[in-house]
TrEMBL record, chain A:
Membrane spanning residue stretches: 21-43, 63-88, 109-137, 149-167, 174-197, 247-269
Lineage, uppermost ranks: Bacteria, Bacillati, Bacillota, Bacilli, Bacillales
GO MF annotations in UniProt: ABC-type transporter activity
Taxonomic source organism: Neobacillus vireti LMG 21834
Gene Ontology cellular-component annotations: plasma membrane
PANTHER family recorded: ABC TRANSPORTER PERMEASE, HYPOTHETICAL MEMBRANE PROTEIN, CONSERVED
Keywords, in A-Z order: Membrane, Transmembrane, Transmembrane helix
Protein name: ABC transporter permease
Highest taxon listed in the record's lineage: Bacteria
Amino acid sequence: MRNLLLNPVLNKEFKLRFRSFKGFLGLAFYLLALSILIIGFIYLDTRNSPMGLFRPDQSRSMFMMLSFIQMGLILFITPGLTAGVISGEREKQTLNILLTTNQSSTSIILGKLISSVSFLLLMIVASMPIYSIVFLFGGISPGQVVTILGYYIFTIFAFGSIGIFFSTLIRRTIIAMISTYGVTLFLTAGTAFLYAISMSVNQMGMATNNPVPYFFAMLNPMMNLLGFLEPDAFRELSSQSGVGIDFPLWAAYLISYTIIFLVMLMISIRKLRPNMKVRSKE
Amino acid sequence: MIEIIDLTKKYGKFTALDSLNLTIEKGTVFGFVGQNGAGKSTTFSILATLLSPTSGTAYINGHNISKEPKTVRSQIGYMPDFFGVYDQLKAVEYLDFYGASYGISQSERSKLIPQLLELVNLTQKQDSYVDVLSRGMKQRLCLARSLIHDPEVLILDEPASGLDPRARVEMREILKELKNMGKTILISSHILPELAEMCDSIGIIDQGRLVAEGSVNEIQQRLRGEKLIIAKLYRELDRAVNFFEDQPLVSQLAKRDDGESLQFMFKGSVEEQVQMLKNALLHDIPIVSFSEIETNLEDVFMEITKGVELS
Ligand SMILES: Nc1ncnc2c1ncn2[C@@H]1O[C@H](COP(=O)(O)OP(=O)(O)O)[C@@H](O)[C@H]1O
Ligand SMILES: [Mg+2]
């Protein structure tokens, strides 16, 4: 941890990123937009309700809406923030020099990962107080908000590691971007689609106790978010309803993405610098 | 000290570096000269642990580049031929970042950086953003960067390329200072005169091969008026050997692998060459053919010395 705080890459990138006023303007704008969205929602809702009240169940649906918007934002932005960090340095011809320093590959990769998503993390954390508007009206607990925040941060790092992976392995940023967005799209829309298909195959009774839908659901960040917010949403995945897996979906999500995260980072760290060993005979 | 042993690099089928052998003693300045594409940057990248060799190896101060790349990195200062800068950083911050990357403490960095800026004449530009510096200043800043961890060995890939004459002179002055500090310097250029004056010895590389090595004078001497001649004979090889051995202008006589021809270096005028051939025929030496081989070195030497004012 101490090492991480002294990470030169992280230090430098923080200095650059938080030096510019433009960044804070962007943050302020995001928070403003989010606030307007919430206030507009409450306004419309109270106007339509017969007694001019904002009820807890509506507060709850607003919380869900907000959560999905932020999740969508994370999945959309994270690949863009991370897929260019190593390849970009390669293209700007600064990577070579960095690689000849004493900094370990692990330190460079971690520094790059954390710094590249730092602004997004800040945006997400800074938006949490806005959620407190939702609290005022009830329907959700502070614990849920904290859980969602943790879930966001986890997802940012998991998908960020995929971006870093492609950025390290692929020379050109544009191709690394396309690959990262492609994989992200597969893990969000692709797995949802495959889940729906495999589920309907299950329900048509062609296969009983087929675990395939579970695996697709477990990889899908949006479905997992829904699972958090509406624990009953994926009841059909349990043993009573055909798929036959009682292991909680959120835990499967955490485990599978922890593995993805570790594998992505390990390969990136290994591949950042060339293996100097002479390959014996080709 | 740098030792390069049988270093070979292939890009697919193409051999960019072909069994390079070279030893550079501690405290000496070695100039690596060759045309564009000769393999200079390939060699330097391998030494800087940025590129893996296909075969062979090298040692920096006794540390193997393949087995101890981390130690090697801490002992070399490397300046690539093309490099970029983090343009939103100020010159001081730029050096500070790399200092931190070498694990130098904050307090040491703040002492060291002004000295380095002084050395490369950039004290006045310390608070300028790196992207507004001129090309020459950027090169000097990069040189200062390569010195930040006080490496004993410097590997500088065309540090003066793309600079105007004044900036080149300035760069050269700094390099001389580094030489006086006792650094072991490996420096490359595609033009010889740039290096001739400051190097203890030079190596000429062409198409991935080291074609000559020595002091500038030695190499020039070797080239002056000498040519390689191959004589193909019809039997009686030994009698021909005896004949050519007696010729005063012939040196390095050797039988070729084909078993029917001889090769030797001839140092003399065209008239003397004609006279020797006449004599050979008079002595009944059965010469089938007699041909001059242009040495590669000569071409290379012409190429790297032409068109540049010797300063
Ligand atoms: N990554 C690469 N892939 C294929 N060929 C390369 C690569 N890098 C260099 N080469 C080739 O290797 C040769 C040597 O290049 P280089 O070492 O850069 O030469 P120099 O620095 O002397 O100009 C050149 O012919 C170049 O085209
Ligand atoms: Mg080069």
